[in-house]
Design a protein that fits this description.
3 strands, 3-stranded parallel sheet, mainly alpha, about 5% strand, about 160 residues
């Protein structure tokens, strides 16, 4: 998570604990860093579930980390609220009819929704010559793909792809 989200989580827990107990006990914030590494993310998920016995988890910034860890949360029936990652596979994998219960949720928009909203705003502003820059990560590649698919008609042109 970014520093602002990290501090926001700390502040929320502090406020909840100050105003009174939730479900009969204070909330303990257990913090871990998955280092944007799928391997580290899988280890962190196992530690949070097995050793820390968390009631729920908020996090997952990187789709690759999520894909390496969501099976553990689902199997343990520990709710995971995805705060940043836009990868659609994270929340679709256990959604009905694949599973009768799904413990993986999101508050971040999917990459498809991001691209759709951006394309609509560009059209509203009548901007036609727009540069789309993306890094070489799976997130960047998905953004380039979705950005190209949301390009309505022939009024937009791709100047270059890097």
């Amino acid at each position: 998570m970014g520093l602002s989200m990290h501090n926001g989580a700390r502040l929320a827990v502090s406020e909840l604990n100050f105003t009174g107990e939730l479900f009969g006990a204070p909330i303990e914030l257990v913090e871990r860093d998955d280092q944007a590494s799928p391997e580290a993310g899988a280890r962190v998920a196992a530690e949070l579930i097995e050793r820390e016995r968390v009631a729920a988890t908020v996090g997952i910034v990187n789709t690759g980390v999520g894909l390496a860890s969501i099976d553990q949360y689902q199997k343990a029936r520990v709710p995971l609220m995805i705060a940043v990652s836009t990868g659609t596979t994270l929340t679709r994998k256990f959604a009905p009819p694949n599973e009768s219960e799904n413990f993986i949720f999101r508050v971040a928009p999917t990459i498809e929704n991001e691209a759709r909203v951006l394309a609509a705003e560009l059209l509203r502003r009548e901007w036609r010559n727009v540069a789309l820059m993306a890094d070489a990560t799976p997130y960047g590649e998905a953004g380039k793909r979705r950005g190209g698919q949301e390009r309505p008609g022939e009024s937009w042109r791709r100047a270059a792809s890097v």
